[in-house]
């Protein structure tokens, strides 16, 4: 498991959000974000391999981009938030950073999980 993981729950149906695209970006010194990895949630709504194998987490600013529009469109549901971006700062690179997303067609919530 990588040092950055996520878990997406579709609270509108009470189930994991399966096959939802998730992108991990890192903020570069020039102020631009660079993509580190692109994944999709598994059958449990989880992404456990956001950092490539052998990568070391650094104390930097990261962004998770969740492709919520494509997820809801594939289910023929309305799309109010076509993308959710969660920007967070890693202060302790030796710790695990879990970023869950609770999602519905018209709202979302996130927090630092364990």
Can you tag this structure with a few keywords?
single chain, 114 residues, mainly beta, Immunoglobulin-like, five-stranded mixed beta sheet, four-stranded antiparallel beta sheet, 44% strand
Q: Could you characterize the architecture of this molecule?
A:
There is one protein chain. The strands form 2 sheets. Strands 1, 2, 5, 8 and 9 form a 5-stranded mixed beta sheet that branches. The chain has a 4-stranded antiparallel beta sheet with strand order 4-3-6-7. The model has no long low-confidence stretch (mean pLDDT about 95). The chain is built from 1 helix and 9 strands; from the N terminus they run ββββββαβββ. By secondary structure, the chain is mainly beta. It has a single domain (about 5-110), classed as Transthyretin/hydroxyisourate hydrolase domain (Immunoglobulin-like, Sandwich). Helices cover about 5% and strands about 45% of the residues. The two termini are about 15 Å apart. A hairpin with a 2-residue loop joins strand 8 (about 95-105) and strand 9 (about 105-110). It has one helix at about 70-75, and strands spanning about 5-10, 15, 20-25, 35-40, 45, 60-65, 85-90, 95-105, 105-110.
Structure, briefly:
5% of the residues lie in helices and 44% in strands. The chain contains one helix and nine strands; from the N terminus they run ββββββαβββ.
pLDDT averaged residue by residue: 96
The CATH superfamily bears the name: Transthyretin/hydroxyisourate hydrolase domain
Low-confidence stretches: none
How many distinct beta strands? 9
Q: H/E series, N to C?
A: EEEEEEHEEE
Integer tally of domains: 1
The CATH architecture: Sandwich
Helix amount: under 10%
Q: What is the beta-strand fraction? A: 35-45%
The CATH topology assignment is: Immunoglobulin-like
**What is the terminal-to-terminal distance?**
13 Å
* Class by alpha and beta content: mainly beta
Please report the number of helical segments: 1
Overall geometry: globular
CATH class: Mainly Beta
Calculate Rg over CA atoms.
14 Å
- Outline the biggest β-sheet: 5 strands, mixed
């Amino acid at each position: 498991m990588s040092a950055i993981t996520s878990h997406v729950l579709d609270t509108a149906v009470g189930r994991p959000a399966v096959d939802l695209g998730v992108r991990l970006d890192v903020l570069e010194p020039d102020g631009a974000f660079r993509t580190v990895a692109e994944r999709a949630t598994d059958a449990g709504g989880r992404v456990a391999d956001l950092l490539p194998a052998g990568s070391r987490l650094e104390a930097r600013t990261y962004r998770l981009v969740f492709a919520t529009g494509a997820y809801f469109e594939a289910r023929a549901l309305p799309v109010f938030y076509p993308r959710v971006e969660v920007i967070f700062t890693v202060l302790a690179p030796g710790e695990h950073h879990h970023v869950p997303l609770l999602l519905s067609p018209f709202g979302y919530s996130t927090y630092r999980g364990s």
